[in-house]
Please model this.
Amino acid sequence: MRHKDNDLLEAIYDYVVRYKKENSISPSYGDIGKNFGIDRSTACRYMKVLEKDGRLEILGHRSIRLAEETVFDEVVQVPVLGNIACGAPIFADGSVQGYMALSASVLRGKEHFIVTAQGDSMTNIGINDGDMVLVEAASTADDGAVVVALLDDEATLKRFYRDRENETILLVPENDNYETRVVNHCIIQGIARKVIKDII
Model:
């Protein structure tokens, strides 16, 4: 590669180690670039040097195995589905658009899928338009969970509560500009577990 800054190389390695520990997922080249004030291509080149040196292995997007990590930490290909509304519900496009490699330790043996948030009704909890959300497949949820709820042919991402007195379900946004939606029935498809930022 072009001129290599060994101090920067070591700093990037330390950043990857720390990021994985704090977020349970590997940083993207965009994350690395933003943290060190370099462009993505430069971040990529430094990561390739670390891989060539045997200090880590790049398995896929946001999937990096450090040399000291156990080889038994398998990688799972998680399906990436269509957009999901964080606002008014939109049509539930369940077709698989691709896959993302995630550490099996993050998934804890549970089935997961990934959806792309569309809209701004969940911004108070850090889910913004365009964010990718890791969802644990589930058909039930506790009150207060952030769920993927299917309403007829529409899917939405909201906080879930049961109103037992009125026998209704409350789908609550996390943005004061939106109102709670009250429905008689919905099908829970999963529980949001993690937001994956800067995916592109």
About this structure: The chain has four helices and twelve strands. The mean pLDDT is 86. Residues 6-23 form the longest helix (18 residues).
